[in-house]
Design goal:
alpha+beta; 183 residues; 34% strand; 5-stranded antiparallel β-sheet
Protein backbone atom coordinates (compact mmCIF):
# COMPACT_ATOMS: atom_id res chain seq x y z
CA UNK A 1 0.00 0.00 0.00
CA UNK A 2 1.14 3.48 -0.80
CA UNK A 3 1.26 6.12 1.92
CA UNK A 4 -0.59 8.48 -0.43
CA UNK A 5 -4.27 8.85 -1.29
CA UNK A 6 -5.31 8.74 -4.94
CA UNK A 7 -8.29 10.05 -6.86
CA UNK A 8 -9.45 10.41 -10.46
CA UNK A 9 -10.53 13.95 -11.34
CA UNK A 10 -11.28 16.38 -14.13
CA UNK A 11 -8.28 18.64 -14.62
CA UNK A 12 -9.24 22.30 -14.77
CA UNK A 13 -7.54 24.58 -17.30
CA UNK A 14 -5.09 27.19 -16.00
CA UNK A 15 -7.46 30.05 -16.86
CA UNK A 16 -10.24 28.49 -14.72
CA UNK A 17 -7.88 28.07 -11.77
CA UNK A 18 -6.71 31.67 -12.20
CA UNK A 19 -10.30 32.97 -12.41
CA UNK A 20 -11.27 31.08 -9.24
CA UNK A 21 -8.11 32.24 -7.47
CA UNK A 22 -8.98 35.89 -8.28
CA UNK A 23 -12.60 35.33 -7.22
CA UNK A 24 -11.46 33.79 -3.91
CA UNK A 25 -9.04 36.65 -3.22
CA UNK A 26 -11.81 39.20 -3.84
CA UNK A 27 -14.36 37.37 -1.64
CA UNK A 28 -12.23 35.68 1.04
CA UNK A 29 -13.01 38.28 3.72
CA UNK A 30 -16.74 37.46 3.38
CA UNK A 31 -16.14 33.76 4.03
CA UNK A 32 -14.07 33.03 7.16
CA UNK A 33 -13.05 29.44 6.47
CA UNK A 34 -10.05 27.94 8.27
CA UNK A 35 -8.33 26.28 5.28
CA UNK A 36 -8.30 27.63 1.75
CA UNK A 37 -7.38 25.28 -1.07
CA UNK A 38 -4.32 26.24 -3.12
CA UNK A 39 -5.48 27.25 -6.62
CA UNK A 40 -3.23 24.62 -8.24
CA UNK A 41 -5.23 21.96 -6.35
CA UNK A 42 -8.63 22.93 -7.84
CA UNK A 43 -10.29 19.98 -9.63
CA UNK A 44 -13.57 18.06 -9.92
CA UNK A 45 -13.29 14.63 -8.29
CA UNK A 46 -14.77 11.72 -10.23
CA UNK A 47 -13.75 8.92 -7.84
CA UNK A 48 -11.74 8.93 -4.61
CA UNK A 49 -9.64 5.77 -4.21
CA UNK A 50 -7.99 6.50 -0.87
CA UNK A 51 -4.93 4.37 -0.23
CA UNK A 52 -4.52 2.22 -3.32
CA UNK A 53 -2.84 -1.17 -3.53
CA UNK A 54 -0.13 -0.96 -6.20
CA UNK A 55 -1.53 -3.77 -8.36
CA UNK A 56 -5.05 -2.29 -8.32
CA UNK A 57 -3.75 1.21 -9.02
CA UNK A 58 -1.75 -0.02 -12.00
CA UNK A 59 -4.64 -2.14 -13.29
CA UNK A 60 -6.83 0.97 -13.20
CA UNK A 61 -4.18 2.97 -15.07
CA UNK A 62 -3.68 0.22 -17.67
CA UNK A 63 -7.39 -0.24 -18.35
CA UNK A 64 -8.92 3.25 -18.02
CA UNK A 65 -7.92 4.22 -21.58
CA UNK A 66 -10.29 1.54 -22.90
CA UNK A 67 -13.09 2.95 -20.72
CA UNK A 68 -12.42 6.50 -21.98
CA UNK A 69 -11.85 5.66 -25.67
CA UNK A 70 -15.31 6.80 -26.82
CA UNK A 71 -15.36 9.88 -24.59
CA UNK A 72 -14.77 13.24 -26.25
CA UNK A 73 -13.97 16.68 -24.83
CA UNK A 74 -17.05 18.53 -23.63
CA UNK A 75 -17.86 21.97 -22.21
CA UNK A 76 -18.56 22.88 -18.58
CA UNK A 77 -19.55 26.27 -17.20
CA UNK A 78 -18.82 27.60 -13.72
CA UNK A 79 -22.15 28.41 -12.19
CA UNK A 80 -22.57 29.02 -8.46
CA UNK A 81 -21.03 28.66 -5.04
CA UNK A 82 -22.32 26.34 -2.34
CA UNK A 83 -21.59 24.48 0.86
CA UNK A 84 -21.60 20.94 2.21
CA UNK A 85 -22.24 20.14 5.84
CA UNK A 86 -24.28 21.96 8.48
CA UNK A 87 -25.87 25.15 7.12
CA UNK A 88 -24.73 27.19 10.12
CA UNK A 89 -21.12 25.90 10.19
CA UNK A 90 -20.33 24.32 6.81
CA UNK A 91 -17.46 21.86 6.31
CA UNK A 92 -16.85 22.57 2.62
CA UNK A 93 -17.16 25.74 0.51
CA UNK A 94 -17.25 25.03 -3.21
CA UNK A 95 -17.74 26.36 -6.72
CA UNK A 96 -20.11 24.39 -8.89
CA UNK A 97 -20.72 23.88 -12.57
CA UNK A 98 -23.93 23.91 -14.58
CA UNK A 99 -25.60 20.50 -14.97
CA UNK A 100 -23.79 18.39 -17.57
CA UNK A 101 -25.02 15.01 -18.81
CA UNK A 102 -21.55 14.42 -20.27
CA UNK A 103 -19.88 14.92 -16.89
CA UNK A 104 -22.37 12.64 -15.12
CA UNK A 105 -21.90 9.96 -17.81
CA UNK A 106 -18.10 10.24 -17.58
CA UNK A 107 -18.14 9.97 -13.79
CA UNK A 108 -20.36 6.87 -13.92
CA UNK A 109 -18.05 5.18 -16.43
CA UNK A 110 -14.93 5.88 -14.36
CA UNK A 111 -16.65 4.97 -11.08
CA UNK A 112 -18.11 1.69 -12.38
CA UNK A 113 -14.79 0.70 -13.94
CA UNK A 114 -12.96 1.27 -10.66
CA UNK A 115 -15.54 -0.88 -8.84
CA UNK A 116 -14.79 -3.70 -11.34
CA UNK A 117 -11.06 -3.29 -10.65
CA UNK A 118 -11.89 -3.89 -6.98
CA UNK A 119 -11.84 -0.47 -5.36
CA UNK A 120 -14.29 0.28 -2.56
CA UNK A 121 -15.66 3.71 -3.43
CA UNK A 122 -17.86 6.25 -1.69
CA UNK A 123 -21.52 5.46 -2.37
CA UNK A 124 -22.79 9.04 -1.96
CA UNK A 125 -24.39 10.55 -5.07
CA UNK A 126 -22.02 12.40 -7.40
CA UNK A 127 -22.18 16.15 -6.73
CA UNK A 128 -19.64 17.78 -9.04
CA UNK A 129 -17.84 20.65 -7.34
CA UNK A 130 -14.50 22.40 -6.94
CA UNK A 131 -13.52 22.66 -3.28
CA UNK A 132 -12.39 26.20 -2.46
CA UNK A 133 -12.15 26.03 1.35
CA UNK A 134 -12.81 23.85 4.38
CA UNK A 135 -14.07 24.29 7.95
CA UNK A 136 -16.17 27.33 8.85
CA UNK A 137 -14.14 29.39 11.32
CA UNK A 138 -16.38 32.05 12.82
CA UNK A 139 -18.49 32.42 15.95
CA UNK A 140 -21.22 33.81 13.68
CA UNK A 141 -23.36 31.44 11.65
CA UNK A 142 -22.85 31.10 7.91
CA UNK A 143 -25.15 33.42 5.95
CA UNK A 144 -27.00 31.41 3.29
CA UNK A 145 -27.72 34.65 1.41
CA UNK A 146 -24.05 34.78 0.42
CA UNK A 147 -24.54 31.72 -1.82
CA UNK A 148 -24.95 33.28 -5.23
CA UNK A 149 -24.14 32.65 -8.84
CA UNK A 150 -20.56 33.20 -9.91
CA UNK A 151 -20.51 36.34 -12.02
CA UNK A 152 -19.03 35.95 -15.50
CA UNK A 153 -20.11 32.31 -16.02
CA UNK A 154 -16.81 31.00 -17.36
CA UNK A 155 -16.97 28.05 -19.76
CA UNK A 156 -14.14 25.64 -20.39
CA UNK A 157 -13.50 22.33 -22.12
CA UNK A 158 -12.99 19.10 -20.22
CA UNK A 159 -10.30 17.23 -22.13
CA UNK A 160 -8.15 15.57 -19.44
CA UNK A 161 -8.76 13.14 -16.61
CA UNK A 162 -5.96 12.88 -14.05
CA UNK A 163 -5.12 10.29 -11.44
CA UNK A 164 -3.87 12.53 -8.65
CA UNK A 165 -1.61 11.51 -5.77
CA UNK A 166 -2.01 13.41 -2.49
CA UNK A 167 1.03 14.81 -0.65
CA UNK A 168 -0.38 16.31 2.56
CA UNK A 169 2.97 17.80 3.56
CA UNK A 170 3.31 19.87 0.37
CA UNK A 171 1.66 22.90 -1.24
CA UNK A 172 0.14 22.37 -3.73
CA UNK A 173 -0.64 18.91 -2.40
CA UNK A 174 -2.12 17.11 -5.43
CA UNK A 175 0.39 15.76 -7.95
CA UNK A 176 -0.42 14.28 -11.34
CA UNK A 177 0.31 10.57 -11.18
CA UNK A 178 -1.23 9.61 -14.55
CA UNK A 179 -2.96 11.59 -17.32
CA UNK A 180 -5.70 10.48 -19.70
CA UNK A 181 -6.80 12.58 -22.68
CA UNK A 182 -10.33 12.74 -24.04
CA UNK A 183 -10.10 12.86 -27.82
Amino acid sequence: MSKHHYFFAVKLPIEVKAFLQEWVEAKKQDFPFAKWVHHEDYHITLAFLGFAAEEMKYEAIQTIDEVLKDEHPFPLTLHQIGIFGPHKKPRIFWAGVEHSNELIHLQKKVYNHLLKVGFELDKKPFRPHITLARKWNSPEEFDQNLLTAIENNLSFTVNEIILYETHLDQTPKYHEFARFLLE
